[in-house]
Amino acid sequence: MVVLYFGQLIHYERVRLGDNCTVYQAGLVGLKLAAEFILTLRTTRRVNVYSDSRSALKSLADPTNTHPLVGEVKRFLKRAKPERGMFLPWVKAHVGYHGNELADGEAKAAADSPSVSLDLPVSSSRFKFKLKSFIIQAWQDHWDYTPNKGRFTSSNILNVSLETHFWGEMAELFTGHCRFQAHLFRFGIGYVDSCACGAVGDAKHYIVSCPLTGDLTARLRFNPFDLSTLVHDFNLPVLGEIVRSQNIFGVCP
Ligand SMILES: [Zn+2]
Predict the structure, then answer these.
(1) pTM for the whole thing?
(2) The RNase H type-1 domain covers which part of the protein (predicted)?
């Protein structure tokens, strides 16, 4: 927080917030520091407090907001406004306003400080974000190091994600659940697990090494030693043809 008097820097305060604090909380703390400073003044009646935190200013203007920090800042402002004629305009950030640039510099200097001077309770949004990151990382570790299950899928889908990337036959293909011989045989359907060429008829075989699907796989653009390179939009139509071709070579009754 910086204080200018006719364009001259006359005071500044650096507060190093905890690592889990959000930009929103930082904006509110800045306004609280400004209000506290204004209440110490005895020589002026008119003060403008410029903030580039639109979310903080909107929260202060919202009578239904119940955020504890917003309530605290409101209490200071309630005193500072009538006593010191305080105004609270919003100012656009990073467009070269002198005071805003100075405040940014102080904020960066405070962030570089090794010791935390103010730690606030973790916001619910930050908590959810951290929890989600933690769960996804645990899922990724499980995905990377599970020895037996889903290894074909993990070889072509390297990273776990909450987004659904594939449906239908593509989801079946990338998870090895197509109606290929090896998969059907596993469930007692069909007499053998092998392709007509003699090798085990699983998804990887039909994509990488089967001579009977050679004319189709020749149209794929991928590195056979890195199946994650297979997962591209331009390969999907050909992969669909490989999935549907299984009936041609199948030995199902
Ligand atoms: Zn084959």
Answers:
(1) 0.59
(2) 1-112
Q: How far is the CA of 233 from the centre of ligand 1 (A)?
A: 25
Instruction: Identify the H or E element spanning 10.
Output: strand 8-12
Q: Using CA atoms, how far apart are residues 142 and 8, in angstroms rounded to an integer? A: 57
Separation of CA 166 and ligand 1 centre (Å) = 25
DSSP string computed for 176-189: T-SS-HHHHHHTT-
Alpha carbon distances (Å) from 197 to 87, 102, 205, 212? 81, 73, 10, 7
Separation of CA 146 and ligand 1 centre (Å): 28
Rounded to the nearest angstrom, the distance between the alpha carbon of 225 and the centre of ligand 1 is 18
Domains of the chain: residue spans and CATH: 2-122 (3.30.420.10), 145-248 (no CATH)
35 class by beta-carbon count within 10 Å (0-12 exposed, 13-18 middle, 19+ buried) = buried
How far, in Å, is the centroid of ligand 1 from the Cα of 227? 18
Has residue 44 got a pLDDT over 80?
no
- The band of 249, judged by pLDDT with boundaries at 50, 70 and 90, is very low
| 8 A C-beta contact, residue 17 and residue 120 | yes
What distance in angstroms lies between residue 206's CA and the mean position of ligand 1's atoms?
6
For residue 173, the one-letter residue type is: L
Residue 236 confidence (pLDDT): 93
Please, what is the average pLDDT of the chain? 88
Residues in CB range of 189: below 8 A, 6 or more apart? 252
210 touches 197 (CB < 8 A): yes
